[in-house]
Amino acid sequence: MSDRSEIIRLGITLGDPAGIGPEIVLKALHQIDLNTCCQITLFGDSAAIGAAETQTGLECPDTVDFFSPDILHETPMMGQINAVCGQSAWASLRLAIDAVMHNKVDALVTGPIHKESFRAGGASDLDHTTMLKRITKADEATTVFILDNLRIFFLTRHLPLRAVADSITSELLEAGIRQCLAHLHQMGVKDALLAVAALNPHGGDGGLIGNEDDTIIKPVIKSLQRQGLYVTGPVPADSVFHLAREGRFDGVLSLYHDQGHIAIKTLDFHRTVALTLGLPFLRTSVDHGTAFDIAGRNMADASGMVEAIYAAERLAHLFC
Asked: Domain segments of the chain: what residues?
């Protein structure tokens, strides 16, 4: 799709039926303008959306198409790890992936899953991203969090903290920087300047607090700078995200999961959107989980799902 005037077709998965996914999806559909925003198809069990209608007092709009894997045969027990709910979540995601791969929808927006339920339900993958990457045979899948002008990428994701330093090699870092710059360009940011967050406090203080910043990160950045790439760092993590928020950098490469997650979620937990780039299509998601503690109580804030839908509608044409 190259004509921006065309209506974007979005596929939305409900996520784990025992979590807040169905609730926030239903609420979001009542907060966006379906007449001008996009064409939406939902993927999830009909029992899940029925439970959300009961919880919220809202009805699923008639203009929304719906595809159910028909895994659930009754209303799920909310807020609990459940293998059947996990099976429903991955079966719904599989339906959605098939739809986008066969050009039935242009981009995906995914509701939150619970990893334990996902695995208990028979999924061979740990999470959305690994499943999407495997099925689409993508060479790489890059996660970026966006909030207004703040864009945070991740070099590593679900690793124990003690394994992070050993995992950061010159080869991995160089490939990560190149991917980030390519994705910033793809997102429409020209001549983007990428900042690499430091691994150690104060960037290691000249080796006094770890030497990885001096021995691995700096040499890679200097080499890429000599090649004409717009990258800088390592910038201490206690300031790099603030500086990017002020406009000093167009993106930040976070070296591990919590380094970037804490920064952006503290800034605005509800409006942060996760993008998965490197797939044959765009995927956006809320940046939070299933919130089992409030599931089924009509307490969930849907603003993150609203932002994820608008982000997908705004950016999908760049990836179609």
From this structure: 1-141+278-320, 142-272
Residue 100, CA distances (Å) to 12, 14, 164, 200, 320 in order? 11, 16, 34, 41, 10
> Is 86 a residue whose pLDDT tops 90?
yes
Residues with Cβ within 8 Å of 9's Cβ and at least 6 positions away in sequence, in order, are 38, 39, 40, 41, 104, 105, 106, 107
The CATH code belonging to domain 142-272 is 3.40.718.10
Cα(252)–Cα(101) distance, integer angstroms = 30
CATH architecture of residue range(s) 1-141+278-320: 3-Layer(aba) Sandwich (3.40)
CA dist., res. 304 & res. 302, Å (int): 5
The answer to whether the 1-141+278-320 and 142-272 domains have the same CATH topology is yes
The number of beta carbons lying within 10 Å of the beta carbon of residue 300 is 25
Ramachandran region of residue 12, left (φ > 0), alpha (ψ -120 to 50) or beta? beta
Closest C-alpha among 95, 88, 184 to residue 144: 184
State the pTM of this model: 0.85
Taking all residues of the chain, what is their mean pLDDT, rounded to a whole number? 91
